[in-house]
Amino acid sequence: MKKQLKPSIVFSSMTVFDLMRDQLFMAFYMINDVIAGKVSLDRVNEFLKETEMLDAYTGEDQTAFLPKLEADDPRIGFNDVTFAWSIDADGTLTPSKRKHLLRIDGELLFKRNALNLIVGPTGSGKTSILMALLGEMHYLPIGPGSWFNLPRKDGIAYAAQESWVQNETIKENILFGSPYDEERYRKVLHQCSLERDLELFEAGDLTEVGEKGLTLSGGQKARVTLARAIYSPAEIILLDDVLAALDVHTAKWIVDKCLGGDLVRNRTVLLVTHNISLVRSLAQFAVSIGTDGCIAVHGSVNEVIGADEAISKVLEEDKEGVEMAAEEVDKPTAPQADGKLIVAEEIEEGHVSWNAGGSHPGLFFASFLGGLLACDLVTTFQTWYLGYWASQYETHDPSDVPVPYYLGIYAALLFIAVAFYMFGFTVYILGVIRASRLLHQKLVQSVLGTTLRWLDTTPASRIITRCTQDIRAIDGPLKDHMKWLTEISVSMSVKLGAVVLMTPIFLIPGMIVGAIGGWIGQIYMAAQMSVKREMSNAKAPVVGHFGAAIAGLTSIRAYSAEQAFIKESMERINRYTRAARVFYNLNRWVCVRIDTISGMFAAGLAAYLVYFKSNSPSNVGFSLNMATWFSSMILWWIRHFNEFEVQGNNVLKLPRALTYWLISLERIQGYINIEQEKRSTPEGEPPAYWPASGSLVVKNLSARYSQTGPKVLHDISFEIKPGERVGIVGRTGSGKSSLTLALLRCIFTEGSVFYDGLKTSDLNLDALRSKVTIIPQIPELLSGSLRHNLDPFDQYDDATLNDALRAAGLFALQADMDEGNITLDTGIASGGGNLSVGQRQILALARAIVRGSKLLILDEATSAIDHKTDTAIQMSLRHELGRDTTVITIAHRLHTIMDADKIMVLDAGRIAEFDSPANLLKIENGFLRSLVEESGDKQYLYEMVEGKHSTEHH
User: Residue 317: how many CB atoms within 10 A of its CB?
Assistant: First the structure.
């Protein structure tokens, strides 16, 4: 049934449809959030379905027939068991064709209240024994009598091979939740040889160790980890190769004062070690693991030595004591007196700084705003035109109203509005994509190009937050809220202008409502900005603590400290959620107040138009429609303005336009402006032939880790000829690793360094560092294939890569251990997590051989490798590298450097001795001579030097 088009019907219907449109828009917009929430819940559900720990192999059907051990069973050991790391058969998690990485046939019981040694070659499974006892490996019973046991009633303490410390003070790392006992604490510091190290720090034991212990050298981290185990009241102590990170003097001290001290007496200690010469007198039981992952022999130390030919040979030829040192970035970073290393994240106050963002082209905003303004003007006129069309039925006979004519104009207006909106929206999308890419590029370049000092003082969790959370805010909520804010601002201006045009008297009430709304919005936004900043800065500690807990999960579970970490994590989460709760409550606060004044404005306009009857019905309907829309948008304008200012930073460069700065972009802009290393210049490019040799000349070199920090190197001068092999030794903190960082210009330096005749300070950093290869104590490996780790840029063929692996000793190690399936296509887990530390170092050596640099620096590169493998690697380095390749080796394993051409002894950042080994051994009371005299294999070391000396003179 046809009805006449009346203004009352038109505008009441349009008002209802406008309100419904907003609600439908929000409903469909929330669908994305619902889907994202569903995906997250599914992921959490899948995670919760996984088995606790690594017990997937041992189901109820298997354990039902196994012997049940009493909870207070005092035995420590195994009986007829096998353990594996993963069920993965393709090698991505366990690159070995041995299905069972650890197999124990028969009974193996460790001796209680005594020191037990676990020895064996690299990759044999020494660490696996400790992990199996701790329940960190899959348990596969092989018979009805299978069992393993580690009584936890009296506590477990564990020190990992890769020392794990929290981003707390040294004292808190040692206490690790245990009650503070002054006498016991001081005794632990003394026995673990930490007293001298604490004197290097202004804040002593209140010094923050930094993320991953960056303040400490490798040896210091190992001793802090050891001190934590010794201080704990646990009756059973598991130590995984802690002596490998100590120099000879410190190792002898630890063995005599700590392992042989009163704090360890009557406690059960399981010590994994490569060398037993210094600890054999203390040990009462030993286990030797073969290359096949099976127990070769166990019993008293003398029985094991007599039965295991390999161990006997090591003791005869290479027993220098506790030799290896997993040094170091031995940097006394001069913490401030309060011990703080990590710089607290700044929390700005008030509104976002005007310098937080950058300018954007005016053409972009002119096009975007022009499209929106034209669209709103057309749609507003379209609404008025619909009322005008309806009014024709009141002044004309319905049959005289040309419907096609009015409908055609209405459709044309609709088409024009859509075209303007599409133009503005397209310009906006293209602009924000370009801006986002540029911003992300600048952020990544800035972080990758910053100084080592900045990276030391900035937690990784904070950097991750900038590159993920803040970038997401700019890519997602920022662009959305900016668009919505602009649209609403333009629409409100046009709608209010239409109301004033039809009813001029409401200009003043409209301005009053706008002023009140702005005042409430200012209060709301000031509070929200502060709360949002608190939320943003409270989130990084949550992520950082979680990351640290994951990294030290084995230690946390060993100490049964799960509840303490859960409590700390919940406290950090609570700090975040407290701010979040205030954030959402403020939304409700502003909603009530804005809705109230908006309703009063619309009601006042309606009352005025109805009672004074100053306009035609069509104009009244049009005004009420515009007023209703204007009132409903005040709240959304404030919300989007707040979200826009909270989510990021941007500038609208229009004449007399407001400049909106947002927190996320403010924080990102801060990272874009961080201190940078020297940029590359055309003048800094070296000649194409450089370097032709590995000659190195250093003159008056001094170095420090910050511009205001103390010097860690003092006026060092020396010369190394091409092809020479130079060993560097020194106590912890003497400056060995600082010297390598200074050569690579990673820290602030003074003086001159000439590499193959060119002054390194005049070279571009990328050119210098690409021509020097350094192998750290814990090398970094990438997730991917072995080929990708050796040759990430695909520059070499397979033959070259395999030759490098062979030269580094990997194939020989595989042959000994019957591990034939490690190939160039073998998968490597992130960080090399599926390899032992020794295997990672072998791959790092192979990578260095592939690069073929003229200068090779080994910073404790063989610290976690057994003596046999280390000897093979040293032979490979002597024969596989070019004659003009200079090798600088930092080591505490003396046989690694005793056949070097020269040895440099550093002490407190100065060169104490620098000459050939033969000449240094002639110096009475010399440092090198004292090291050799104190080692367990003095005669063998002297023979090495004499053999090299005689060879050079024939």
Answer: 14
